[in-house]
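We store amino acids, tokens; thus:
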Amino acid sequence: MKFDLTVAVREQAGKGAARSMRRAGKIPSVLYGQGECLLLTLNPDHLVKILKSHAGSTALISLTVEGGKSKPNRTALLRDYQVDPVTGALLHADLFEISMTQPIRVKVPIKVVGSIPAGVKEGGVLHHNMREVHVECLPAALPDQIEVDASSLTIGSGIHVKEIGAREGIRFLDEPDQMVVSVAAPMSDAKLEALLTSGAAAAGEPEVVAKGKEAGAEGGAEAAKAGAAAPAGEAKGGEKKEAAAAPKAEKKEAEKKK
């Protein structure tokens, strides 16, 4: 799908020039590719319409360049853009010029189609393992999106890149065995209870260790008390011996004096 966008060549660059453009209702932009780089300005409202109506990475934009000395008509892809984190307004856009005769590599969004998968009806859970696929093709063959029918999926089954199905003029660049969409079995009550039980046991282990440490500390304290009591007893015993020896020494001295 193609969109028309009119842009103008600019000569000024930098933060000051960018602020002036935004006050005037324009935003700065850059067009690169095909061996050339142009500084541009564009109307952000026109680009917002493209973003809202189509996935930006796959929108072919037909540019009308005003004020340039080179070719005025070009084809480009929106490669990147910046928005204000508070207001959400567009601040800057990067455009990549392409040639309609040369293949391009683009990421295309995946859309799951069909009725509710059989596995989901049985209680399974649908997983979008990939939101986009990387493809190579000519710009004219670039699809808006890749549709994947998951209605026949049962629990435990899925669709790989190699099973998407061939598209004329499109080559998939992702790994063939990479899962695109699948249906997983729901978690049983027994498994959930086992996880909760193991989690509770793991949470209780530190308490047991802490109690053991406390018990050891108490035992150490008691041992310390016992150890402290023993020297005290020895000291008392020593004092008794010294007290008993003192009268004998005094009697000997008295006898000598006589």
The helical segments are 15-23, 44-53, 118-121, 189-257.
